[in-house]
Amino acid sequence: MGVVVVTGASGGVGRATARAFAERGDDVALLARGQAGLRAAAREVRRAGGRALPIQVDVADFAAVDRAASRTEAELGPVDVWVNAAFSGVFAPFTQVEPDEFRRVTEVTYLGFVHGTRAALDRMRPRDRGVIVQAGSALAYRGIPLQSAYCGAKHAIQGFTESLRCELLHERSGVRVTMVQLPGMNTPQFDWVLSRLTRRARPVAPVYQPEVAARAIVHAAEHPGRREYWVGGSTVATLLGDKFAPGLLDRYLARTGYGAQQAGQRRDPAQPANLWSPADERRDFGAHGRFDRRAVRRMVQPWASRHHGLLGAAGPPLGTLGGVIARARR
Length: 330
Hints:
This protein has helices at residues 12-23, 35-48, 62-75, 99-124, 148-170, 189-192, 210-222, 233-244, 246-260, 302-306, 308-314, 319-329, and strands at residues 3-7, 27-32, 52-56, 81-84, 90-91, 131-135, 176-181, 194-195, 199-201, 228-230, 262-266. Helix 1 packs parallel to helix 2, helix 1 packs across helix 7 and helix 9 packs across helix 12. It has 12 helices and 11 strands. Helices cover 47% and strands 14% of the residues. It is globular, with a radius of gyration of 19 Å.
């Protein structure tokens, strides 16, 4: 059992991941901005059997992240696993996203991962051990409409992580870094994201419960030899489709991407937005969003997640890829 740091731990995937590590017997430092969400997440970690250290921090501030890492090691012990899961976003066409909003999404979603990774490495490299898990997305490879800032940040994380992995291999470091590419998740972000859409934002189906992501992240931390993991059949289909038929996916997403990310109800103009300040400062949103009835609770393609190299080598005749191409052509 060890010490784990999870960023974005007050809600969604980060919240479920913190709980999953505590159930494994780990002590967990929870990094996030919202006080109410942090307090509730800490209670869940303690109920699961782990020690909890909630720390209010904005991951866009490296000095604050570094202080949180030092406090974690002083109060819980040396960090064994660091999970970067914090993010923010804006749902709108690119031309409706203000430059300062785009910058803020980049600072939280991309630089937040950079800051967390640096804080972890500064402590892990001298010990020559430790694992860093980046909570990625299928959108790290395949951009979609209405989420240009988020997609750009996830692409940046992918490139940054690949560069870092090569450097660690070059120096024969015992520190491991891996990435978990996730599908659409049933998290509270769709009720607190800054949105300029006419209707309420929703994840692209199929939607998975955050516990699916949490189990994959824990597995990745236990088996960090793989460079990345793909979670969910939709992630497999998306990444393979983008590899072999990116132009078809462009046209398919141009036709379907707007509708697939909006529910039938009109967006409440009073909906909170957590881009500049935490939506869960006074109210706890929990790990789940409003899509429990339709969310998938278990990953049905664990083999594909662990063997996507073989899937990629199989080429376009794969059934999942064929389905993507067929839908794109239609």
